[in-house]
Every structure is written in structure tokens, then in C-alpha cells.
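Complex record, two chains
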Amino acid sequence: MMPGSTKNEAMVSLVLNIRDGDSHASFSLEAEPHRTVLDLLERLRAGGGVVPAYRHSCHHGSCGTCGAIINGLEALMCLTTAGDLASARPRLPGGPAVEPETDGQGAVVVTLEPLARMDVISGIAVVPGRVFAGIPGEAVYLAAVENAGRSPLPADPEGARAEGGCKPDAAVWRPAGRVRFEACIECGLCVSACPVAVPFIGPAALAAVNREREKRPETAAAMLALAAAPDGVGPCGRHLACSRVCPQAVYPGKHIQMLRNALGAAARHAAGMSAD
Amino acid sequence: MFDPTIPTRHPGRVCIIGGGGTGAALAYDLALRGFSVTLLEKGELTSGTTGRHHGQLHSGARYAVGDRAIARECMEETLVLRRIVPDAIEYNGGVFAALSDDEADYAPAFIEACQEAGIPAREVPVAEACSWEPALNPAATRTVWVPDGSFDAFRLPLSFFAAAKRLGAEIRPFAEAVGVEASGGHVRAVLVRQAGSIRDERIECDYVVSATGAWAGVVGKLAGLDVPVTPAPGTMVAVRGRVSDMVISRLAPPGDGDIIVSQRGLSIIGTTQRIVDNPDGILPVDEDVAFMLARADELAPGFSSRAVHAVWAAARPLAGRTSGDGRNISRDFMVLDHAPEGVAGMATLIGGKATVLRAMAEKAADHVCRALGVLEPCRTRDFVLPSWRDWYAEVLP
């Protein structure tokens, strides 16, 4: 449920249970259906409540900091509304949607847990180091945008060119023409949801590896080597939890499959060469 | 490869309060000048105003008519940022479009002001602008190209934090300054409480800079100061999909709902402006949403037919006080030294805008150098910053 039609909305009664060490801090509140979980935490904190620590920055699903396990399912708190929580929702990635649990007074019970596989700083705030550990240091975050029938962007005139001053780093590569950021916001929901229990660089890193290979063919051999390593695509059990929780439609499972396909093609090519 | 050398280590210990964009750039600047730096942020880094910015990298065109100096500074800083944090910037340029006779009449003064400020704005035929971005309203009567862009409001400052940390600065998120200790009219220490802890910790320092933006009034009170800052929140609305790659703005004096910034997979219409007393817990104003979508439709017809992705608000830190909506307050910044109020060794950065975060830090670091008797030039223009991913990579055990 999103804002825009905010008139005469029935308020949603919620009980928020927020993980705080060995226990939970609980808050009862009424919320407009379009308010997000993050809005509610901010409102509680501004009202003087001692709210367990949580991460947040952009409030619109771009920074990737406010991931949490919300009633069993990894999600961004800034994009999950009170109305969402009052509706049927899966309790685990890929699970069936089930009606919300309510307490004796009919309030929807919402439990916030920190993302899994990450060190907890305090409350539900985590250090997402594991998300970033496997992303290649040289992976470029900008991607080219097609002109798609539009005229190419005009060249910068004198006075608007960014050359000069410090020398551009040779490692800083950028596409020509129109650019945009990668869709992946490195939120780590996929890393938290992935059930693989052996050493594995994880779905976010493998998606970045495949994107880098697609964008910059000169890196393909190095990227495929990362994918072929013991902690590369091998441990993936195709559970697809990563793709199900991805808030950005990156679908890491698809990238992992593309890497497998590319590795298979390379192996067949090598076998064909040796057969000759 | 980010590997600057630090010519001289200075004994001065500087404590920065506030982990937004300005604090990030200041921690980096001071660390690069050889100071021992500790930065305290009560929540996650950039969780106040910085991260909620709509992401426009201002060429300065928006401000040129009103204030050439601010516009010139924006232009200079966009060029610096495009060099030193290229991976956190979608640089696609921008278009200002006139949609009324008044706006068309504004074009000559607008272009002249831009050029006086060093911004190479140029009028282009409407058909040409529409060929770059067909989403632009074809009823526009005049269009002007400007070197605007957009940046990732979280990742760009985080690159500054990563750089500061590489140089030895201690950056502490979830560490709230709860007291400023002074004796003999001089600041001696900051008391800090780490999230989840019940004990306060004392950080001795020789200088304190409050880079707390809209929270500067709250933090000033810790030292018994009355800091003139007006938190001025604005509502923003993001819809799914990119209506354009270029930033699209209204060819008119700055107002509400007159900028569309596309970034990653979203298009954002910004913004409104109100003033509040308390910058905490600011939520978007529901009535603003329909207004903003209607304004966006004027610039890019069909904008409002896209699915709304998020609605949020951020508090600008306007320097000074006002009883109006705050648009009469300049977006300039200043370093406020508190020695005349009897608190030596402390300054507050007030005002400013995200695009000029590095310049704000430079002025504040110059001020710290003067106060501590150090001659060390600013070098933050000189190095390409490490990736924001470095910030996380290095905190792994």
C-alpha cells in the first residue's frame, strides 16, 4: 500500500517487537497503513522511546542499509508498510502468504530481527561486511544506459569537463554516454536469506561478478575464475531465496545461473579445443 | 589506488560530532592534514539529512540568479566530485524547461547569471532537448542545458568515510555525543554513549566541530550554546522507472516540486519546504504528495501514472532563523566559532548543501588549523577516493 490515497484510511494496530540482545523491546502503536516500518521506528524514537539501534539512511530503497528480518522475511524497513504487515505475507522466502498473527486485542504482531550471517552492532543494526567481502574490488558501479531512440547526450562544453587536477585513476572505468548505477543496492537481504552453510561468496557478490563480466568483457576471464573457485557458484543449491527477497529485482539466482552457463561454455570450448 | 602520504602528523586531537556528508568530508580533510580525528554519529552514518537527499549534483544553475557565489561554488565542486568520486555519480547533464510566458521571460537572466557564475549553461531548441529526453513536456517554450547530474547520497559520503578511515580517523557510528565538557572557557572533552551501552565514555580533544546540520541547535545545547539553525524539511516522492537520464528542472526561481532527478531505477520529484523546531522523527507530509505529483506531471507528463515507490522527508539545515517557509534564507554555509560566547575550542558548521560538502569541510578544516596554529593546506581535491565498499571491507575481522 502506498501513499497518494491517504484520506480516511483505517488505522492499523501494531505491536512491534524489536530484537535487543537476548530479548525484544516491545511497542504498541497505531499507524496509517501507508507508514513504513522505518517511519514508525523514527516516530517512536522522536517520541522519546528507547528504540533498539537500527540502520537507515535514504528512506526510499536506494541505500540498502535498513534491511531486517520482518516476521521471518528479509525486507527493507523503508519499503514495508503497516498495510503490508496487516495483509497476508510469506513467513519465509518463497513460502505461502499467511494471514498476520494478532495478539488478544487484535493488534498485528510484528517482530524485527537483524539480518542473519552478519555481526550485530546493537539492536537490529548489523555490520554488513559479508555482503561486501566477495564483491570484486574493481567492480564498477556505473552501467551504460541505452539511448533507446533518444539522441545521444550533448558533449560537455568548455567549463563543464571534469578532467584536470588529480589524475584520473587508471582503475576508474566508466561507460561512455548515458550512465546509471547498478540496480543492486548491496542491502544484503539475499545474503541473509541464502541457506548455503559452507564457504560461499554469496549471491550479492556473484551477481556483481556476473554484471562485471557482462559490462567489461576484458574482465571475463578473471570473473569466471572467481565463479569457478570452490566458494564460487559451486555451493549454490538453487534455493532461489536470494531472488525472492531481492527488493531491486536483481535476481541474484539468475546471475549465478548465467555464470554457470558461461563456465559450462568455456569448459566445452576447452574440451573441443583439446579434442582437436 | 588511494595512497596519499601525510607529510606531518600534528598533535591536535579533533572530535567531529555528526556523521553526515559534511562530517565525512571534514574527517577526511583533517586526517589528510595530519590531525588525530574522532567522529561521533548517534545513528548509522548519513542517517540524518545527508542520505535522504534526492541526489541532485547541483551545477549551481538553480541558485545562480539569487546568489552567484553559491552557484560558482556548486559548479567548482561538481567538477571536483566528478573527479574524486566518479563511481558515485550519474553524470548525464540537466535541462531547465520554461512552461509559461513568465518562465520563458526568465531565460535570459537565468543564462546570464549562470555564465557569470562560471556555469556553461546554453539555450537549446526545445526540439533538441526533447530529442535527448522525450519525457520532457513538449509544450515547453524554452530549454536550457546545464551540467547537472545526480549522486548516490549514501555512497558518495561513504567514500569520504572510507578515505578518512584509511588515514587513521576513528569513525564511530551509533555513538551519541551526550555532553561537551569545558573548563576555563575551553572545551576539553566530549562525552559519548555507544548504542547498547549504559556507560558514558570521555573523549579528550583539543577542538570540537559540530557538523550536525539540522541538529546543530540540539548539539549546541550540550555546550550551553544557542546555535541559530532552522530545520526545514521537504517531502520527496519517488516513482518507479526512469523518466529521463538528465535532471529536469523548472526554468524559474527555486520553488516547490520543480526538480525531477532520476537515479538508478527511480525518478524523484523534489521538493517542498517547511520549517520545524525538532529535526527528529520527520515524516513526509501526506498532503504534499498529490501536489508534488501534479507538479512533476507539468515537467514530465505521465510522471504520476507511474507506481509510487516511496515518500519521505529530509530536514535541510538552514543557517539562521526565520518565521516564513525558509526559502528567504540563503543556502550558504558558515563556520561559527563559539569562543566569543565563552566556549573556545568549538565551532559549528551551519547551513550548506550536499553538493558543496567538500568545500564546507575545507573551510571548517582551515578554521581548525588556524585555531590550533597549524599551517597545512587542504589536499582533498587531489586524490580519487576509495570505493564505499572499502568502508565495509575493512571492518571485517
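Note: Residues 252-275 of chain A form the longest helix (24 residues).
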